[in-house]
From TrEMBL:
It catalyses: N(1)-(5-phospho-beta-D-ribosyl)glycinamide + (6R)-10-formyltetrahydrofolate = N(2)-formyl-N(1)-(5-phospho-beta-D-ribosyl)glycinamide + (6S)-5,6,7,8-tetrahydrofolate + H(+). This is Phosphoribosylglycinamide formyltransferase. (6R)-10-formyltetrahydrofolate binds at residues 52, 94. It comes from Brevundimonas albigilva. The gene is purN. SUPFAM superfamilies: Formyltransferase.
């Protein structure tokens, strides 16, 4: 998220971060965003109980109130309902710490190491109703080194994510039709 904000503040960027929204009240990214001059809001999901649709309507309202045109998920660890995905279809991106379609979901680094893969990486993709199944926009590859642990590999993949996501979001926003 911080990498997206920093890149979006560059004079030649095709995007700017209008809002950082979290469902977790003490998410560290909120303070980081605030320090960088970006508006923040928290919409906790717990008060909504099992009513995921009501929570997502509140999220959607906050995004639209901030005049967001694209949603870039970064560490938002909830599976979204088809309603919210549909409301932002073709305008919601996510980054995933594997070379999709390999290893959707969790434990991606451990799975890549256990499989004996020579490389891992990260993928920016459009969000669809299926978990980590949307069209791939860009990827970055990271070698898996002898002796890698999930932690060492995760750190190198995270470094690649910080480079890939801003680049992919910028390219995506440049390609959007002008209104």
């Amino acid at each position: 998220m911080a990498a997206l904000i920093d890149a979006g503040q560059a004079p030649d960027s095709a995007y700017e971060v209008a809002l950082v929204l979290s469902n977790v009240e003490d998410a560290g990214g909120l303070a980081v965003a605030g320090a960088k001059g970006v508006a923040t809001t928290v919409i906790p999901h717990r008060p909504y109980g099992q009513d995921r649709a009501a929570h997502e309507r509140a999220v959607d309202t906050a995004l639209r109130t901030a005049h967001a045109q694209v949603v870039a998920l970064a560490g938002y660890m909830r599976v979204l309902t088809p309603w919210l995905v549909g409301a932002w279809r073709g305008r919601m991106l996510n980054i995933h710490p594997s070379l999709l379609p390999l290893y959707p979901g969790l434990d991606t680094h451990a799975r890549a190491i256990a499989a004996g893969d020579a490389e891992a990486g990260c993928t920016v993709h459009l969000v669809t109703e299926g978990v980590d199944e949307g069209p791939i926009l860009d990827q970055a590859r990271v070698p898996i080194l002898a002796g890698d642990t999930t932690e060492t590999l995760a750190q190198r993949v995270l470094t690649a994510e910080h480079q890939l996501y801003p680049r992919a979001l910028d390219a995506f926003c440049r390609a959007l039709p002008r209104t």
